[in-house]
Amino acid sequence: MRTILNGRVWKYGDNIDTDVIIPARYLSTSVPEELAPHCMEDLDETFAKDIRKGDIIVAGNNFGCGSSREHAPVAIAGAGVSCIVAASYARIFFRNAINVGLPILECPEAVNGIEKGDIVEVDLEKGSITDKTRNKTWTANPFPAFLRELIGAGGLVPWVRRQSGAQA
Fold first, then answer.
1. What contacts 83, CB < 8 A, 6 or more positions away?
2. Hey, which of 38, 42, 77, 140 has its CA 20 to 30 A from 19?
3. What is the rounded distance in angstroms from the CA atom of residue 77 to the CA atom of residue 161?
4. Rounded to an integer, what distance in angstroms lies between the CA atom of residue 15 and that of residue 120?
């Protein structure tokens, strides 16, 4: 798994819920490439058309609140987001993100210091978050090695398949 991620920041506030991340009208599919064009469209109409592979979402408290749908982190990853840094996450979103292989870190101090459009480097192994634009670094609690392995495998299902030797 690539442990150092670099990307341009898309910044959002508190309580970004799963209905805003991927509106319910698109839940007839779970295919990341079909969800991606609609990711964040009710909140930020520029997101899906302007996102670049590797970009990073930075958000406030309770990111991913609302329903328990796995579609939300699937849509975010499908859009090309490499990582999310938030002040806090709704617990079910936190678990769903790991399950689908989307790296997430909690660091309120970084959220307060990073602005939209900044270039940020995230080291998943160390938990460091460096704003290259502002030359500031913060530290989040990194995931333990086994969770980095799970995320690196693309999520829980691919990891289990790999562990069991099953074919995809």
1. 5, 7, 56, 57, 102, 103, 104, 105, 122, 124
2. 140
3. 20
4. 22
Nearest residue to 82 via CA among 73, 72, 92: 73
Query: Tell me, what amino acid is at 46?
Result: T
CATH class of 4-164: alpha beta
Please say whether the beta carbons of 89 and 104 come within 8 A: yes
- 13: Cα separation from own chain's centroid: 15
Q: Any idea where the domains of the chain sit in the sequence? A: 4-164
Helix (H, G, I), strand (E, B) or coil at 81: coil
Higher pLDDT, 41 or 1: 41
The answer to pTM > 0.85 is yes
CA dist 119 and 108 (Å) reads 18
Neighbours of 18 (CB within 10 A): 25
Q: Which residue, 48, 52, 58, is CA-closest to 10?
A: 58
* Digit-coded pLDDT (tens) for 61-115: 999 999 888 999 999 999 999 999 999 999 999 999 999 999 999 999 999 999 9
Residue 94, classed as helix, strand or coil, is: helix
**Residue that has been written with the tokens 């940020």 in this structure:** 120
- Whole-angstrom distance, CA of residue 42 vs CA of residue 126: 34
- Strand ranges (E), 12-112: 56-59, 83-86, 104-106
